[in-house]
Amino acid sequence: MTNLRRGLLAACGLVTFAALSTAAHADEDKALAHARQLLKKAILVDGHNDLPWAIRIDKKAPGDVAAYDLNGTVAGQTDLKRLDKGGIGAQFWSVYIPGEIGSGFARTQLEQIDIARRMIERYPKLQFATTVADIRAAHREGRIASLMGMEGGHAIENSLGALRAYYELGVRYMTLTHNVNLDWADSAAKPPEHGGLTKFGEDVVLEMNKLGMLVDLAHVSDDTMDDALRVSKAPVIFSHSSARAICDVPRNVPDSILKRLPENGGVVMVTFVAGFIDPEVAKIQVPAMAELSRRTQGKSVEEAEKIADEVMGKLKLPKTNIAKVADHIEHIRKVAGVKHIGLGGDYDGNSDWPVGLEDVSSYPLLFAELIRRGWSDEDLTLLAGENVLRALAQAENVSRQLSKK
Ligand SMILES: [Zn+2]
């Protein structure tokens, strides 16, 4: 706060200030009530939640789906009560495995799919889903459509057969890379080795088109984004990325790529990770993430988790807020258009969030912020889920067409 503003506030006097703040609260409540009402009708589809990984690395009972009781209040950011409060209609549960482990990718990936499938099976509120029709049906029944998105193409171990098998198990998107380069694709987190996708990388994208598995470009390098957009016959997604023009980190999407989304039909699902939202947080958090990736190279999952606690636990991060997330959303709307935005919080995949967006119950607060900024119900419904549902429906169509040949 500047001295001038402080002086003005003092001159206003306490009574006026209190009146202003009451009026602000009334507005806040109205916008929030509106947001909650809207999310009862609209299908809120979140692109990325790492709950299956949180279950795997839980300190008390690692990997024990039954012990991690989603009916109660868990230590993490996701449980059924909070999902309900957040108005979630469909969730892409991330089946993530670290690329840093160096070997045993397929086995670790199958274990993650097993955890996700058993978790979904366990709760009547969750409904396993693989198609747009499944998602709409689950929503009509008041259940949370539960899809799987695979984070990191290392899991296919350079095999299109493995890719097809993952599709059969229910995987409906694959993030081409995580934080390591592959034999066929460059990651945003490492110096480039291939200049984007190799010829085999292009084959992977085309095979995904054929299957009807969405190509996810979160975590990949700019050249990989560029190549995938050139090759893909179906819309791409960014399951959890934000706008580089607002927060300049390699994980976010540059305007040059945003501009190409109308032609492709793709969707950027904005993430809430504080280090990708606010440059002040990024300054500290992003180098720590790079250090973590370096130090966990070749380590087991258990060893890597200890290093993660050590590296990330000691960070002192400044706070950021909901308005910053709304700024990313509005920037993407400006550059790519309202039909190319979605949400992918990345809950349980990180520990630092903007104030007010700390867990899966928070979405209505973000919608309230956009309502106060003048967003229409129609545009909010597109943002909530209709955009990504359109992209998935288009991918299903492309798959049908390519399979006919
Ligand atoms: Zn991620």
TrEMBL record:
Molecular function terms from GO: metallodipeptidase activity
Record's signal peptide: 1-26
Species of origin: Steroidobacter agaridevorans
The keyword Translocase belongs to this UniProt entry's keyword annotation: no
Record keywords, A-Z: Signal
Domain of life of the source: Bacteria
Keyword Isomerase in annotation: no
Protein name from the UniProt record: Dipeptidase
CDD domains xrefs: rDP_like (cd01301)
Any one of the GO BP annotations: proteolysis
Alphabetized Pfam families for the sequence: Peptidase_M19 (PF01244)
